[in-house]
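Data card: per-record layout.
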Amino acid sequence: MIRIKVPGGEITPNQLEKIANLSESFSIGSAHVSTRQNIQLHWVQLEDVSEVFRGLAEVGLTSREACGNTIRNVMCSHFAGVCPNEPFDTTPYAKAIARFFLRNPICQNLPRKFKFNFSCCSEHGYVRIADVGLVPTVRDGVRGFRVYLGGGLGAASFIGHLLEEFTPESRLLSTSIATIRLYDRLGNRENLARNRMRYLVSEIGWEKFQELLLKERTLVEATISIPTKSTFEDFLKASETAATNPSTIPISTIGKKRKLPVITSESDNDPYTRWLHTNVVAQKQPGMFSVYISLGAGDITSNQLRVLAECIREFSLEKKARNTPQQNFLIRYIKADQLPKVFMKLSSSGLGNPGATTIVSTVGCSGTTSCNLAITNSHRLAKEIQSKFLELNIDKEKAFVGSTIKVSGCPNSCGQHEVATIGFYGGASRIATSMVPIYTMLFDGSTGENGELGKAVMRVPAKKVIDVILKIIDTFKKERTSGEKLNEWIHRISIGNGTGEVKNLEDMKKILLPIIELPALTSAPDFYKDYGNDTNFVAKTARGECAA
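The structure for this 548-residue chain is written out next.
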């Protein structure tokens, strides 16, 4: 697998076309969008890797430090620059951080991988589950950030801690360097299972870590050289120059502190209107819209990549796209009268599926299709869920907007199951003498600045997952209050505030227990096989790199 870094998720038509060509020449004719805004090519022969690297470099892409014990792809909200609630666009800062630390000696041999995540506002972004998460804010006319440290997902997950109420942009670099230096010096280099920065913060305590970090930052600011500061400032200026020119695209000053609205119309019976409801979002720029391209668990073919590139050139004033943590693409700065043409273009190549902002857009890591660490085929399960939901027209119901389903093939959380409305991670269980692929189900995870980790509910056999979700949806429809959304109802029962038959998670488990019972192997052998396999399930893992 070759992982291509896409800093901030921002990608150009030329880069998409190059990836399409490389995939056809050296991979399997498709690419995979990960939950960390990377794009991956699988099944590349080792002798062809150098040719792929050379091709990526021709269009300004790299795989350098996309893996290994260094700073991984720097993430940024795909709404940065168009979100009505953002104080300023964080894209240039994300790209400057990515460029400054690329090939930087300070981070070439860290105890383990290290992740930055920039949000656009308090609602959008994954800042609480990153080593360094940054939320933009302005104080007395000065740009800055609320910086969260020590978050992360995995076999043991933690929510990040707030360093201080306000970190001015002038201290962004020194805070980042101080954090990396402290982790490099104190991080665990012996135990592979406990060497992420979140374990360091947990073991020494947040107050002690915070104290050490602020002292380290003082040392960094006292000793940092002028050329080093100038290099970062040059990267920041270059990123700001490359960003969309605000003088050519007007920005609305109306509607601050509001959610990005989803476009609606009177009827959703025809395919275009159905797509319009869930895949088109109004920007803060008057008359401008962003369009989601829904993918199946992040998969996109070479021909579809080329169609996507053509759409960007033809319809986007920005001439770029963003990939998202939901494993989709977002094309921004599209005029209203162009939306029908965009839909026709996308639909011609199978990219016109609705449901991007609803529970239909299921996230799934690569699972056993290509990952040595995976136990179950989470990738195929995510596609099966999405297909079933589209068949049942679940995307048409407003109650499912904003809810998510995320599936990981093991506890390592490449599918980010712990921050999903309904999350699943793969495992194995023995029933009588047979092994069964099984998932642990979690409720009430969330992202954003107030993000929380989900709570484990129960274990569900792989071939029963869809039945369980449909039962949850059926129960929700009976129990919800007027206007209540699925994620809101799940949060309510997760904290024990249910008002009907289901008052808490234990009540939910009682309803679901009859569904998860498996028949004997001799009468229903298919339940003992994982998705995508025609033989009985065997739990088998090996050493390898996590899929995201």
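Known properties of this structure: The first helix runs from residue 13 to 26. The longest strand covers residues 422-431.

See the next section for split statistics.
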